[in-house]
Design brief:
25 strands, 9-stranded mixed sheet, Beta-Lactamase
């Protein structure tokens, strides 16, 4: 495998990238993956390159300012084989074909020592300023990496800069469950180009990850590889592996190898490497912490599609796996359906993408107000959305929040209807709200899981939404929710009126249905006096005094379509209650 190594004037100004046959790329100061931002003598786009037939072909671009040098001579076009290099500005580009081969670990180390975090914390740096200066770049390396490959390159370069005696550094991942290949190298690099193989010790890596401590092996001073049973390879006398702990870096380790100073003995005191071990562990700990924070941010971003900010804040205080576990609790469920979709789909059959954009905007109105009122987005069902309150944290004002979300959705759709050119002008909505016991949490199968709520209360909310078409009321409530609105929600926020007692189609139990209304200031067309007249008419209707009911209904504005439901039912029965009248109106369809 061929690679291109870029090395600037400073040790950390470096990268090592794989050359893929037949894939051209651009070198430059602003060239994406192949950028050398540290060198002002390199143009933003300086040269094109491609690895073909075992050679790297490089061609200088016309807009570049400075020449390319090969063997000290300027060249506009060059071809290089493995082991050769060229220079642009102060940066050297080397073609390498160094290989990685796992050590068979037949050479037993002279010394093996493990170091706990507690022990390394007591080690003092002799060159603390230099170490801190290198460590200060770590947050930028992590946050600036666009992917894990870039992260590993930055980490290895930083470690080579921070550990002067290291000849090679690798980021590895270990998993003993993987059988014959339990360790993989995520990225590696060495300080100087070499024709020898890089031979990391698999046994050393697995031991460090298993112990969760840094483990050091010392084989001896650099002798010929065949002259000593204690020499791992010709250019490595010692190696250590520091595990990177934490869920975000599970199984990761930092592997560092190098040579002892000239004249050192095979039984050299490994204490000489303690500062390097401590530095590497600091890098590992910082990496783990920052990666954990990034992982939590990604989780929050993913959960943000379901949870309001205040719910996310509560989740951050506990293990989400425990919090999201399904459990039975009381919830208020909102079911909102988009009306006019079928008609619009037929009208816009030639431009379904535009229709999809409009429907997405409509569903976005629903989910926005659910989340804004601290609810949990539960599911999309075709052109309908479902949300609920009361889970994963208890909300004493769950019913009020659900009602405010429903009213806000109604207001936004009604405002759009008054604007002929608005994307939502042709859509209407119906909302059902019900409160009761349900199972809420992460629900599903082994193949698909989602955060939602399950139980009869969900079905009731859906049925109420369907009834909005029959009763001509935009928002309907079950009796539990309606009673709570009257007792807990101030009239300045929402009002409620009883509409009828009905037996939904397919159900055996009757339900008292109420309408949720905006406050008088937002909906003056229906005053509190009108509501009192309607509810008096309903009481007379239930009692069988239909003449009184009709007289009371005449006091309600004619444009109030809700009163038509009772008026038509009374007219269909010639203003006379049927035999055995119990006040319940059977519904002959779901909607």
């Amino acid at each position: 495998m061929a690679e291109l190594i870029a090395q600037g004037p400073e040790p950390h100004q470096r990268w090592r990238r794989t050359l893929r046959a037949g894939e051209p790329f651009t070198l430059g100061r602003e060239a994406g993956l192949w950028s050398t931002p540290w060198d002002p003598h390199i143009s933003r786009r300086h040269a094109t390159a491609c690895w073909t037939d075992g050679q790297l072909r490089v061609e200088r671009l016309p807009e570049s300012r400075n020449p390319i040098f090969l063997a000290g001579r300027e060249a506009a076009q060059i071809s290089l084989k493995a082991g050769e290099h060229f220079v642009i500005g102060a940066t050297t580009f080397s073609v390498a074909s160094e290989t990685v081969n796992w050590s068979r670990d037949r050479a037993r180390p002279v010394e093996e020592q493990s170091y706990s975090s507690q022990y390394l914390q007591r080690v003092r740096f002799h060159n603390a300023d230099q170490r801190i200066e290198v460590l200060s770049r770590l947050p930028d390396v992590i946050s600036g990496a666009v992917n894990e490959s870039e992260l590993f390159i930055g980490l290895v370069n930083m470690l080579l800069a921070g550990i002067p005696r290291a000849s090679a550094v690798a980021i590895v991942a270990a998993d003993e469950r993987q059988g014959p290949a339990p360790v993989c190298i995520l990225h590696w690099d060495r300080r100087l180009a070499s024709t020898s193989e890089f031979q990391p010790s698999q046994r050393l890596i697995l031991e460090a990850v298993r112990r969760k401590d840094s483990v050091l092996h010392v084989w001896g001073p650099g002798r010929d590889a065949t002259s000593s049973q204690f020499t791992l390879s010709a250019n490595v006398d010692w190696a250590f592996c520091t595990p990177v702990l934490g869920e975000a870096c599970r199984g990761w380790g930092i592997y560092v190898a190098g040579q002892l100073a000239a004249g050192a003995s095979g039984s050299a005191d490994p204490a000489d490497l303690r500062e390097d071990l401590k530095f590497t562990e600091l890098v590992g700990n910082t990496l783990s912490s920052l990666r954990q924070a990034q992982m939590m941010q990604r989780r929050q971003a993913a959960l943000g599609a379901f949870f309001a900010p205040q719910v996310l804040e509560a989740l951050g205080a506990e293990d989400p796996e425990i919090v999201l576990k399904p459990r039975e609790t009381e919830v208020s469920v909102l079911f909102c359906d988009l009306r006019g979709f079928s008609r619009e789909a037929e009208r816009n059959a030639g431009d379904l993408l535009a229709l999809l954009a409009r429907v997405s905007k409509a569903l976005g109105v629903m989910t926005h107000h659910i989340l804004e009122q601290g609810g949990v987005f539960g599911d999309f069902q075709g052109d309908a959305a479902m949300g609920f309150w009361g889970w994963p944290i208890s909300q004493p004002d769950a019913i009020e929040r659900a009602c405010l979300a429903a009213l806000a959705i109604r207001v936004e759709f009604e405002a759009a209807a008054r604007q002929p050119n608005h994307p939502l002008a042709d859509f209407r909505m119906g909302i059902g709200l019900a409160t009761g016991q349900a199972v809420a949490g992460r629900i599903g199968t082994t193949d698909q899981v989602k955060v939602t709520v399950f139980g009869p209360v969900v079905n009731l909310a859906s049925r109420l939404e369907g009834m909005t078409k029959i009763l001509h009321a935009p928002i309907l409530l079950d009796n539990v929710t309606a009673r709570a609105v009257r007792e807990q929600v101030p009239p300045e926020s929402a009002r409620c009126r009883r509409i009828a007692v009905v037996k939904p189609y397919g159900l055996t139990s009757a339900v008292e249905v109420s309408e949720l209304l905006p406050p008088v200031k937002d909906y003056p067309e229906l005053t509190d006096e009108h509501i009192r007249h309607y509810e008096a008419a309903l009481d007379a209707f239930l009692a069988g005094d239909w003449s009184e009911a009709v007289e009371r209904l005449h006091e309600v504005p004619a444009k109030d379509r809700v009163k038509d439901f009772l008026t038509i039912f009374i007219a269909q029965h010639n203003r006379t209650p049927p035999p055995g009248w119990n006040g319940v109106i059977p519904l002959l369809s779901k909607d």
